[in-house]
Amino acid sequence: MVIFSGAAVLAMALAAFGSAYAQGRTGAAAMDATWKKPEVSGKVRTTMMLALVFMEALTLFVFAIVFVLAGRVNNEIGVFAAVAVGSMSLAATGSAFAQGRTAAAALEASWREPEESGDTRTSLMLSLVFMEALTLFVFAIVFVLAGSVDSTRVVFASAAVAAMALAAIGSAAGQGRTAAAAMQATWKQPQGAGNTRTSLMLALVFMEALTLFVFAIVFVLNGRATTPAGNIFGALAVAAMAIAAIGSALSQAKAGAAAMEATWRQPEAAGDVRTSLMLALVFMEALTLFVFAIVFVLSGMVR
Amino acid sequence: MDLLRLAVSGGGEGAGKSDVFFRLPGLGLEVTSIVTTTWAIMAIVLVLCWLGARHLGRVPRTRGQALLELAVDGLRAFFAPIIGEENARRFLPLLGSLFIFILLANYSGLLPGAGHIRGLKAPTSNWGVTAGLAAVVFFSVQYSGIRKRGLRYFKHMVDPWYLSPLLLPLGVIEEFVRPFALSLRLVANIFGGEIVVLALLMAIPWFLPIVPLALELIFGAIQAFIFTFLTAIYLSTAVAEEH
Predict the structure, then answer these.
(1) In chain B, positions 193-222, which contact chain A (CB-CB < 8 Å)?
(2) Does CATH place domain A2-299 in 1.10.10.10?
(3) Residue B30 gets which letter from DSSP?
(4) HSE-up of residue A143 (Cα within 13 Å, Cβ side)
(5) Do A105 and A184 touch, CB atoms closer than 8 A?
């Protein structure tokens, strides 16, 4: 209980720090927009409030998981509970940083191109939901594992939630970079806003999927992690998946951001750019899927 | 600490055990404080609407009709810039009901004694209730999308076609993640807010809890706002034709 409680307060602090950082960035961008274009200040304020709510919610998710686990924690799973709240706070911080970056870019777009501010806000909301979902995936896996964890698979369960958090951070970083580039593209080339949003949504889905692959492998391995060998193999396997997912997400972000820039610099080529982007994303996605496949095959052989 | 433990168990699965008033005959469904509060909110809304709409005229002659028109027109004017005039008119019954119910449900948790006296507990502090609301949103979005666009509604999941093996499962997952996030965001905010008030009440019971209580007044409205706002965006993207 003491390990869990200590971890819980530290986790809350980290989550609060992450949310605060993102809210600070959003607030500053809103102030900036307000003096540069006073006539859009009403719209800017609404956008800011909506974005702040999302970042606030991230800390509350950590709060909620602390309460869920506090009802079940005992000496047997104390380590798992401690790692779980820590992972939640890491994921929340990652999501918050990405949301802050995106919201700041969206607020800049809303004063530079006031006519498009409604569309920009819709794109921002959809992006924020994607980034928030990453933390919710960690929430879900903690919830699922808390129901099945016992002393035989505490090693695997702890590694699994930590790996989920790392994958979520990777995906969030990638989504933040791509979404910020998309927001910039929206005001640099307002006519292409619809095209940009389609490309952005596709890119976000790809990066979201990377975390979901880790989610899936945790599910698969959880049933087999009751032996010591299965425990250790499972722990290493989810760590491997997380590393692969982070690598894929960061490279997808680079490609995605470059595609957004290409779209506003040469709007006529938007269709070609998107096709190339899709192909590039698929290749990077496949790299993580190779790890997924090998883990899946080998997990059947480990006794 | 006992109070805090009570709150913890109130959020977990042990919730309804001591809180069941009676079971609905035939179905065996448990009626808890959350259900009775929901009924009360429904009754208040229904009675107010009935009172206001008794003597309808083309030009509002009664105060009730004027107030109701103010509310309905205000909601429509709020959604119109986000999802367009036509969509705002079409989806107003759903969006307006969601907003009014969630707002009153959030505020019901601020009434004195809420959560401690039997029969009064904020419905939106229970995951089951918010999950139910999110399920309504999920089915409304799918129904509106398919009704308006037929099979083309699914086009975004298989476009471009060579990516469909990847996009199709991800698209399906995303459709489920959205209502999941909606429900969890709402319940985490309301339940989390209650716990913060409770913890401060136990630490310093004089004056200090006024601050989080005042914040809850704002957050309760913002959460109702963001739930309906996102629902509006999901509905409008579901029925939107391709660019």
Answers:
(1) 195, 222
(2) no
(3) E
(4) 15
(5) yes
Q: Name the nearest CA neighbour of A9 among A73, A82, A71.
A: A82
Question: Which tens digit of pLDDT belongs to each residue from B55-114?
Answer: 888 888 888 888 899 999 999 988 888 788 889 999 999 999 999 999 999 999 888 878
C-beta of residue B115 within 8 angstroms of C-beta of residue B206: no
Report yes or no: B105 and B129 within 8 Å, Cβ to Cβ.
yes
Does B82 sit within 8 Å of A61, measured CB to CB?
no
Amino acid at A211: T
> Tokens for A266?
């040469």
In this prediction the ipTM stands at 0.72
CB atoms within 10 A of CB B1: 6
Total Cβ atoms within 10 A of residue B2:
7
Q: Which residues of B touch A125 (CB under 8 A)?
A: 229-230, 233
> How many C-beta atoms lie closer than 10 Å to residue A34's C-beta?
18
Residue A153 tokens read as: 């698979």
Chain B residues near residue A57 by CB distance under 8 angstroms: 185, 188-189
Digit-coded pLDDT (tens) for B15-27: 444 577 777 777 7
- What value does the mean pLDDT of chain A take? 91
What phi-psi label fits residue A183: left (phi over 0), alpha (psi between -120 and 50 degrees) or beta?
A: alpha
Q: Which of A63, A122, A132 is closest, CB to CB, to B233?
A: A122
Cα distances from A108 to residues A18, A42, A101, A195, B130, in angstroms, run 21, 14, 11, 19, 34
**Model confidence pLDDT, tens digit, residues B204-218:** 888 888 888 888 888
Check if the beta carbon of residue A231 is closer than 8 Å to that of residue A152: yes
Cβ contact B174–A208 (<8 Å):
yes
Backbone angles phi, psi at B3, to 5 degrees: -60, -40
| Calpha distance B79→B89 (Å, rounded) | 9
Tell me if chain A has a CB within 8 Å of the CB of B191.
yes
Measured CA to CA, the distance from residue A11 to residue A85 in angstroms comes to 6
Q: How far apart are CA A251 and CA B168, in angstroms?
A: 23
Report the alpha-carbon angle B56-B61-B66, nearest 5.
80
Tell me the two tokens of residue A194: 């619809």
**Nearest-CA distance B242 → chain A (Å):** 10
pTM listed for this prediction: 0.84
Q: What is the DSSP letter of B116?
A: T
Which token pair is A28?
């500053």
The β-bridge relationship of strands B30-31 and B22-23 is antiparallel
